[in-house]
């Protein structure tokens, strides 16, 4: 490994330059105006992989293209599938960025740009680690396949059918993903659970036009008032979701799981201070840490109604809109919860209004093994790459394809967190620690080496 590590370290500036180049491409998958940019970001990582000696192809889907690549020269050795995504979240609100969202800028140890941590930086760490090893040795100790998509941030709508159609081509022993985070600086983590997601939009319509709130107020249903009431009714005052049946399939946390979480080096007071809030209210009976990664919840993501400009305009709006999401945990089924939510919203709708419910993306919750040969290989790799053994934890976010890998390919995923919890993913001034970038690159190479020591008969 000395030769590999030496080469990876000598390449540090180049790793950063390539990351900056990738980050300059505004690959916002949710915005059709950026369609060509998304493709360009896919072509960028494809060129990177091709240049490193992988067989590559860009496969079109009804949405954004999928990048696949492989190097299969390690006959008889295990096969790794590396997954990542090259699309990013929209950069808005632009005025809160200290630099342009797509003008990557180094501030101290951090690189600031949309996608820096989620997921270009973390994804490139794996690519560079594997590619660097191949360059230094002209061979890899295991077979490696890559699947890098451009639609993760919109719920991977086309990836499940892609995986089904390319089942044989994607066959592997295990998946490696870097799209989560460490527990904190110097606290590397393996993620063993992800929450699922259900995202919905409600549109309420009242009268056939906006009305004078004096002439009509009190006589006509106000969609804004009604929407606030309906949303308020989705949770009780204490923070429990009130949709009938919502908790029915929630697998209770065991005492052992709760003890393991309580023992993690996570300081709730520090977490609270970092957010600038005076309290952390939520579902009774659970710690904030449990509530953000191992319990289901419901949050409004956006609201729109009526007059929001300067001063007062006495208007009774004729429509109102809300977007909200539910984070799900094992064994909640997104489809069942979706039907229960729709039925509940219908029961809450006051007379005199029309409601349209739209369902955006969904993702199933998933747990991955905290033991087994690949997990142990990952623990050893992280210990070498970060100089510290990883903690095991669940994450509150979602990566839709992880449950599909299990279901369709029959394989588990190793989720290595290279980023940090305060990286501002999806928010202004997203950042990525460049020292962690380098540690992630080295961890990827170590992982291949550790994988190769796992006997085929495990
Ligand atoms: N990298 C995140 C997933 C993540 C977030 C893992 C937080 C751990 C902690 C990923 O890119 C993401 O944002 N996923 C979306 C999925 C959705 C659009 C279907 C999410 O969780 O909102
Ligand atoms: Zn994301």
What does this structure look like?
There is one protein chain. With 458 residues, the chain is α+β, with helices and mostly antiparallel strands. It has two domains: 286 residues, Aminopeptidase (3-Layer(aba) Sandwich); 149 residues, Alpha-Beta Plaits. Helices cover 35% and strands 22% of the residues. Strands 1, 2, 3, 6, 7, 8, 15, 16 and 17 form a nine-stranded mixed beta sheet that branches. The chain has a four-stranded antiparallel beta sheet with strand order 11-13-9-14, with helices on one face. A three-stranded antiparallel beta sheet has the order 4-5-18. β1 and β2 form a beta hairpin. α2 packs across α4. The longest helix has 19 residues. The radius of gyration is 23 Å and the shape is globular. The two termini are 24 Å apart. 44% of the residues are buried. The mean pLDDT is 97. Bound molecules: ligand BES and zinc ion. Zinc ion binds next to loops. The site of ligand BES has 17 residues, from β14.
Concise structural overview:
This protein has 458 residues and is of the alpha+beta class. Helix content is 35%, strand content 22%.
């Amino acid at each position: 490994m000395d030769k590999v590590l030496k080469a990876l370290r000598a390449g540090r500036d180049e790793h950063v330059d390539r990351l900056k180049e990738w980050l300059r491409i505004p690959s916002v998958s949710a915005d059709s105006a950026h369609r060509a940019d998304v493709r360009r970001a896919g072509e960028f990582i494809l060129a990177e992989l091709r240049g490193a000696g992988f067989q590559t192809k860009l496969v079109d889907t009804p949405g954004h293209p999928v990048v696949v690549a492989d190097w299969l020269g390690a006959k008889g050795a295990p096969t790794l599938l590396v997954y990542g995504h090259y699309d990013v979240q929209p950069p808005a609100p632009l005025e809160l960025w200290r630099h342009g969202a797509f003008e990557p800028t180094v501030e101290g140890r951090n690189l600031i740009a949309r996608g820096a941590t989620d997921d270009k930086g973390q994804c490139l760490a794996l690519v560079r680690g594997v590619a660097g090893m191949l360059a230094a040795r002209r061979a890899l100790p295991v077979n490696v396949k890559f699947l890098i998509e451009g639609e993760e941030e919109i719920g991977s709508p086309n990836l499940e059918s892609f995986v089904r159609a390319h089942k044989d081509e994607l066959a592997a022993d295990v998946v490696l993903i870097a799209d989560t985070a460490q527990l904190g600086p110097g606290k590397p983590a393996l993620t063993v659970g992800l929450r699922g997601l259900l995202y919905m939009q409600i549109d309420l319509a009242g009268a056939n036009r906006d009305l004078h709130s004096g002439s009509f107020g009190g006589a006509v249903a106000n969609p804004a008032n009604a929407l606030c009431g309906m949303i308020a009714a989705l949770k009780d005052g204490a923070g429990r979701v009130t949709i009938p049946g919502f908790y029915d399939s929630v697998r209770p946390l065991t005492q052992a799981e709760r003890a393991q979480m309580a023992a993690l080096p996570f300081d709730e007071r520090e977490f609270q201070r970092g957010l600038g809030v005076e309290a952390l209210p939520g579902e009774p009976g659970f710690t904030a840490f449990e509530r953000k990664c191992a319990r289901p919840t419901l949050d409004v993501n956006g609201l729109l109604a009526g007059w929001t400009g300067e001063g007062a305009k006495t208007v009774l709006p004729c429509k109102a809109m809300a977007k909200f999401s539910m984070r799900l945990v094992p064994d909640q089924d997104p489809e069942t919860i979706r039907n229960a939510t729709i039925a509940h919203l219908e029961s809450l709708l006051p007379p005199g209004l029309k409601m349209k419910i739209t369902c955006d993306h969904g993702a199933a919750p998933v747990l991955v093994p905290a033991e087994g040969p690949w997990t142990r290989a990952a623990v050893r790799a992280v210990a070498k790459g970060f100089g510290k053994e990883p903690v095991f934890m669940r994450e509150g976010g979602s990566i839709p394809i992880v449950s599909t890998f299990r279901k369709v390919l029959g394989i588990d995923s190793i989720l290595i967190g290279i980023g940090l919890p305060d990286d501002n993913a999806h928010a202004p001034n997203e950042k990525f620690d460049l020292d962690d970038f380098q540690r992630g690159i080295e961890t990827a190479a170590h992982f291949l080496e550790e994988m190769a020591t796992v006997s085929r008969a495990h």
